[in-house]
Amino acid sequence: METLSGFDTPSARAACPRPRHLCFTLLYHPDLRRVGARAVAAFAPGYTVPLSRLEPEFAQPGSHDHAPLRDPHLSRQPHLVTWGADGWITITPAGRGHLSVDGEPIDETRRFPPEALSAGLVLQLAKRVVLLVHRAPAVLSAPRHGLVGEGSALEDVLMSVARVADLQVPVLLRGETGVGKERVAQAIHQASPRAGRPCLAVNMAVLAPNTAASELFGHARGSFTGAHQRHVGLFERAHGGTLFLDEIGDMSMEVQAMLLRALETGTILPLGDSEQRAVDVRVIAATDVDLEQAVAQGRFRAPLLHRLQGYIITIPPLRHNREDIPRLLLHFLREELAQIGELSRLEPPAAGALPWFPHSLMVQLIQQDWPGNVRQLRNVARQLVISSRGSDAIVVDASLARLLDHARPTTQPAADAPRPAETRIVDAPDDEPEVRGAEREIDEDALLEALRSSRWAIGPAAAMLGVPRSTLHRLIERSPNVRRATDIPMDELMRCHDQCAGDLDAMSARLRVSKRGLKLRLRELVSAGQAREK
C-alpha cells in the first residue's frame, strides 16, 4: 500500500480542518457514568434530530458503545431539534412542561439564532437529563496527554499542542488565572521528543527579585553572603528537557535581561561564576497579564516578549467550554471522594432512589461564569465533598452558596427568548415576572430535592433552585410535605430529642427541618419553661 510519508503524524493531522456538526452532549444523567456522552448529527443543515427516551443514541468520545437515554421519566414522544440551512436552531417540544431551554420552559416551537450555538443551548428534559446542543467535530482526534475534557475548546488547544510539540521553539501560554496553563505546558512536554527528560516549573511571582536569578541560573560558592556551596539552577537541572516559567510578567527587569541572553545564546552564567555553561532547554512561559501593555509601560522588555512568543497558545476560560464543566467536576469529585473512601456516592442510584448529585445543582454550575476557572471548580468540588461527608445526600452549605454566588451566572438566552431567572441568591421584588416564572417552574420533587440536599437550610436551598428566599418560603407554605420547626408538636419534638440524645444534626435529618430553625424552637421552649418556673 502506497502512503504519503509524514501525512499521518499528529502535527499533520492537526493542520487539517475539521468540519463541525450539530452535537448533543450529556451534561447530566441520573447515571453519572454517562455524563460527557455525545450524539453527533453528522448531516447537512436542515436535518431534524428527534430527542426522546429512545433516540438518538449516545456514546462517550472514542467509544463504540452507543445507547439511548433510557430514563423512564422521559417521554417516548420526541422533541424535535432542527438545524436550519440559515444556521438557526428550531426546537419543537413534544408537550407542555417537559422541556426547558437555557432555564426557560418552552411549550411551543421556538427558534434560536446561529450565535446561540457558540455558547451552546442547555436543554433540560423532564428535570432528569441535561443536554448541551452545540457544534463540534464529529471525531475528536487530538491526544489528551492527561488533560481532562472532550470539549471543542480543549480540542482546539490540544491541536495547537500537537502542531508545536515536536518543534524547538519557545511557547507562550496566555489565558486567565486558573485555566490550567501548567497542565498544557506538561502536555507540550509529554508530546515532544523531550518527554523522557526533566520538565521543571517555577512561579516567577513567588520569587523575590534577589533570588530569582539564583533559582534560574544558579550561583557559585561564595558569590554572596550565605552562598556556602554551589547551587545548580533550574536551567541546568532542566538540561535536555523543558522549563515552564509561570507568571512571566512578574519577572524583574534585571532577570529579564539574563533570560533573554540565555534564550538567544543557549548559555547561562551562574551568579559569581566566570564560566559560561551551555544548556539545551525548551522554555514555555505563561501569563494572565497584558504583556504588550507592560512593554508600553516599561515593565517588560520587548525583545524578550518577541523571543518568548515563538508560538502562542491561548487557553479559553471555563465559561467558554461549558460542555466540559460536568466532566471536570466529576473528575474532581472522584478524586476527593476517593480520599475519604466514599467513591460509591457516584454510582447509579437504586430504582426509585434519588441520585446523590442532583440535576438542579449541575444546572446551576453549568450556568456560572467561573472567574477562577478550573481552579475555582476544583474548590467547589472539594467543598461539596467535605460538607457532604457521611451524608446520604449532597449538602450545599452556606460557604458553598457564597462560592457559587461569586461565580456569577453567565447563560445568555437567545435574542427572541425572555431572560430566565438568574441562578443566584438575590432578594427580588415578589412581583417581578422572572421570579414568578421560576416559582411556577419548581415542582414538589424539585423543592424536596433541594431542601434535602441542603439539609433543609433555606439559604442554600434557595441557591440551588435559583430563587430568592421569599420565593422559597412561599413554596414551603404551599407544600403539603414540608413543615417548619414551629409546626412540630412539642411531644414529637421532645421524643425526637430523647431518641437522638440531643444531637441537632440527627434531629434535623429526622424531623426534616433546618438545624437553625430547630435550635431557635428549642431555645424558645427552654425560655418558656423558665418563665413558667418563675
From TrEMBL:
Residues 407-426 are annotated as: Disordered. The keyword Zinc-finger does not apply. GO terms for molecular function: ATP binding; sequence-specific DNA binding. The keyword NAD does not apply. InterPro entries: AAA+_ATPase, AAA_lid_NorR, HTH_Fis, P-loop_NTPase, Sigma_54_int, Sigma_54_int_dom_ATP-bd_1, Sigma_54_int_dom_ATP-bd_2, Sigma_54_int_dom_CS. Residues 147-386 form the Sigma-54 factor interaction domain. Keywords: ATP-binding, DNA-binding, Nucleotide-binding, Transcription, Transcription regulation. This is ATPase AAA.
